[in-house]
Every structure is written in C-alpha cells, then in structure tokens.
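Q: Structure for this?
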Amino acid sequence: MAFRPRRALAVFWKDFLDLRKNVGLLVSMAVLPAVMVLVPIVVVWTYVNTPNRADLRSVAQFYDPTLPLGASAARFLIDKTLTDWFGLFLVMPVFVPILIASQSVAGEKERRTLEPLLASPVTAAELVAGKSLAALVPAVVITWVAFIIFCVGVDIVAWPMVQGPLMPNALWTFGVLVIAPLFAFFGNGVAVLISARVSEARMAQQISALVVLPLVGMVGGQVAGVLKAGLGFYALQGAVVLVLDVVLLFASIRLLDRERLVSRWG
Amino acid sequence: MSGIDVRGLGKRFGERVAVEGLTFHVRPGEVFGLLGPNGAGKTTTVRMLTGLLTPSEGEAVVWGHRADRDGEGLRKVVGLLTEQPGLYERLTARENLRFFMKLHELDESKAWPRTQHYLERFGLGGREEEPVGGFSKGMRQKLAIVRTLVHDPRVIFLDEPTSGLDPESARTVRDAVAELASEGRTIVLCSHNLSEVERLCERVAVVKRRLLLMGPVRELRRSGQSLDVRVDGEAERFRNALTSLPFAPNVLAEGMRLRVMLEDEAHAPDVLACLVGAGARVHSAVPAQRPLEEVYLDLLREEGA
C-alpha cells in the first residue's frame, strides 16, 4: 500500500479544523504556556528588584559554594533559574500534543466516527501521519511563540540589572528549536499509542500525561542541587528521545491497524 | 467481475467463530437484503466485504477487488453507511463531506455538484454551512447517507438506512436506494425493518453465523402461505378447534379475523370444514402470502429449536 500524502493531509486538515472549533481544548492548551512563560519572568523580576536580600547569597552558595564574594547572588540565581526552567519548559511540547492527539484518536472512538473513517481508502500510516501533524504543528508553534514571549519578557525585566539581552542563550535556542520538537513527537507518539488502546479521550490524556513525571523529577533534582543539567545533558536527552520517537512511530502504525481497531472498537 | 461474489467466507476472532461458510452472489443493480438477529454476523460480514476485516477463510470479490488482498482498492469502490452516523459534530455538513472527498482524493469541483444533488434530494440543501452538532437525528442520518455516496461507489452497504427517519424521509431514502440500484450499483441492505426489506430487496439471505436461507423475497413469502378467514363474532373461540387439527397450524385471532398459517395449500378445505364443524359462520376465506417477517421469525424459531 503506497503512502498517499494527500490522504494524510486530509486527516490533518480535518483534525486541525476540529481543533480550531474546540474551545474547551484551546483553553486548556493555552493555560500551560501562560504559566510556563509568566512564572520565570516573575521570578527573574523578583531577583532584579531585590538584589541585596541577605538570604539570596545563602541560596546561591547552596548551589555553588565557590561563588566569589564579589559576584552578584541575584545574577547567579537568575542564570540558575533560566537554566533549570528549561527542563520544565519541555513539559509544554510534550503535554500539548498529548491533549490534542488523545482527543483526535480516542475521540474518534468515542464519537463513533472511526468505522466510516476506516472504511475510506486511508491507510494506517497516513492516519498516523495526519493525526500526528495535527498534534505536532500546534504544539511546536505554541512552544516557539511562548519561547519568543518568554525571551522578550525576561530581557525586559532583567535589563535594569544586566544592561543587555539575557535571552535567547545557546541552551534555550538549541533546546527550543531542536529538542522541543523531538519531545513534542514523543508526547504525540505516547498519546497515539495509548489512545489506540483505551476507549475514552480523557483516559488517554490522563495516562499519557504520566510521561511528564520524569521531566518534572529531573527539574526537582536540579532545584535540589543533585543534578546539574546543561546543554550536553539536554542534547543527550534529545538523542534518547529521538530513538524513542522512532520506536513509537512504528508501534503507533502497528496499533492503528484497521483490523485491530475495528474488531475492538468499531 | 462486478457485483459481489462470496465463496465459503468465514471469520474467527481467536476461538470464536463469528461467520462461517457464507456463499452468495449479488448482481450489479440488485438490492440484496442481509438479515439475521443481533450478533448473527451481519456486521462482520459487511466489514469483510468493505475491507475493514480480513476474512479468516473463503474468498470475497467485490467489484473485482479481493477482500483479502486488495482492501485499499476495495474501499475505493464501496460505500458504507454504518449503524451510527459517525459525523464530526463541530464541523459543518460541507466540511464533513469535503473530508471524505479529500480521503478519496476526489476533484472537489467535480464531486461537489453530484453531492449537492444528493443534499437537495434529502432535504439538506441550504444547510451545508451549519455545524452537524445542531442537526436532528434524521438530518444526521441523511447526511451520513450522502457521505456514503460522495465518491460515487459502485457497491453500497446500508446498515439500517431509515433508522430515526420520519415516514416521509424514510420514503425518500427508499426511493433513492431504488434509483441507485437502477443505475447499476450493487446494494446490500442490513435491516431489522422487514417490511422495508420486503419493499426494496429482490433477494434476501438470512444469516445466523452461517447462511440459514437465501432466495427471492417473492418465493420465500410463497413458501409459507396463510388463509385469512372472516367469521361472525369473536374469532378467538375457534382457535382451539383449529389447533387440534392433525397438521396443528399456527393461528392468529383478532376481532372477527383469523389468520391460519399453512404448510400446505391443500389444508385450506380442512380448515374451513373444521370452522364450519365448530359452528362458525364463515363470511370469507382468502389465501394470502405470509409477510416476510413471519417467514423470518419461523426460520429463527426452527433454528433455535
């Protein structure tokens, strides 16, 4: 069976159209980026506005006991916050496709639209491609837009102290442009896989969302001072996720097999 | 080869046999009824013939496409109306139809006039830009039928096509089915509405995991005739006399009317003699064909016994 891009694009077109009309889902998709952008800007603003608080040095020295006396603890903590926050920021490209893909795959079962869809000439690979695109494109666009707002916001609030642009730095630029799409693909793959196995979109979202826990755990390790994550760490993480993406892609195509879906859910 | 050719078709899900040994042929231009109780394997059969399930045994060729080898080609020539309309509620009627045009890689400028014709025919003209979520059950059903036809399929499977429709709309659908068949398309109708099957189908097959019976509707009805008798007074009081006859016919009594089911037309004089002997004043006695429903129910009763 040949892969026909037109049919994959048809699935993308329909899912994207449906997403644009799903106000509830759009609102839930907007909440996470808003939090991801606003929280670090407020934290940086706090450091910039209270640079001489005595306890800042203690906190900074907890993370780096070799911090020179003359160095600004507030500036150190701003850099530390921006580095650590990238780990949490990655939750967004994972989570947004989970919200969308769970709706689009398990939602077809819930709405009883699966059988007419599968009775068309579309193949499993075209279905996976179309549905994945419909989840990935908004996820990556939202991540990039949030990143731009984040950079502008941080630079504005940090300017009085830094007197220059802090963002985008190498870690964030590489991370958002290269690693975030890989993570988005990962979130989408997990959601498609789980959606193919469960009957309800809500259940698919809840189970798929568990994959963000390791990311949150790693950020916890950074905040606790037991994990130092930089560009190399995230590049390694991205390579692992790339391998997982390939595995998930093939598993999704296999699980979205017409016979399996119809005999179980049709 | 056009039409549908099924030989020894069967489907197993693990140890469970859903369908076995089905053999039948449906001609182009024919409306064929597929009957059977719930869980009899009708849906499984339709799914095999529409390329949704791969047969476990046997062979099915639908308009020249083998169901086990050419599912994609097969799905291009068949249209399937599922029991549930299965429409995208946030999308408009037009968007729902355009999606299926795109899936079939149709040139929309050519496909749309034909689709518009069906929309008008089913009373949905002018409602194209409305979200399907606001449609009534009947409108959804009609839109699902139009969606089944967007790619001009040669073979059409209709599962309960008039479910949820008012009598006028049901009639429109029945007329459309007859018209589609007259254009040379093969139509398979699955329905529990046997009077509708009787009106639309030339032949029917009754399945209950395997093929129980198949033949032209006319002959099936003739295979069991009945005698409609009108008597003076309450007909019910003659029921016992009739059921004690040696051939023990089934008897329905309603008001002054008796319907006596006969295995053999030759028993009609015995029925009348019995009634007269029991003191009935017989006004009229008319031989009648049994409705398909009774033939069908008797068949299932025999199968159950």
